[in-house]
Design a protein that fits this description.
The protein is α+β, with helices and mostly antiparallel strands. It contains two helices and eight strands; from the N terminus they run αββββββαββ. Helix content is 18%, strand content 35%.
């Protein structure tokens, strides 16, 4: 009987730890959108998916120059966020013929360089608690 009780305790703790490990959030806010036109698109990546297929993607309205989303049900790990101001509401980032972006964009850690964003510049660590990030275009 003691063995069954101990086994059930271990199983309950294991399931509880598994659920809490998958229950973290990342809240991202773009704090300096230049207009309230359109929306802001946000994409959450890990290293393997960076600039390919996001783990989660969301859009948010712009209110008084700010736009916020929350990515939910996340486990511990390294992540990066890329976001852009979809001014014309066409659900994609627009580019000039020379490849330069027509719309503002930003990344977690606010590192802006010439060329496309890099995971190592934008990455951050999600561990024991939820995270809130401010991103600037």
């Amino acid at each position: 009987m003691k063995f069954i009780t101990a086994l059930l305790t271990v199983l309950v703790l294991s399931v509880t730890n598994s659920l809490t490990a998958q229950n973290k959030t990342i809240t991202a806010t773009v704090v300096n959108v230049t207009s309230n036109d359109g929306k802001v698109g946000f994409a959450l990546y890990n290293k393997a998916t960076f600039m390919k297929k996001p783990l989660q993607a969301k859009n948010a309205k712009i209110i008084e120059g700010k736009s916020t989303v929350t990515f939910e049900n996340l486990s511990d790990g390294e992540y990066a966020i890329i976001c852009y101001h979809d001014k014309n509401d066409n659900n994609r980032m627009d580019f000039e013929s020379n490849g330069m972006p027509k719309e503002d964009y930003g990344t977690s850690n606010n590192v802006m360089s010439f060329g496309p964003p890099q995971f190592n510049d934008a990455k951050f660590l999600l561990t024991t608690k939820n995270i809130s990030l401010d991103i600037r275009f």
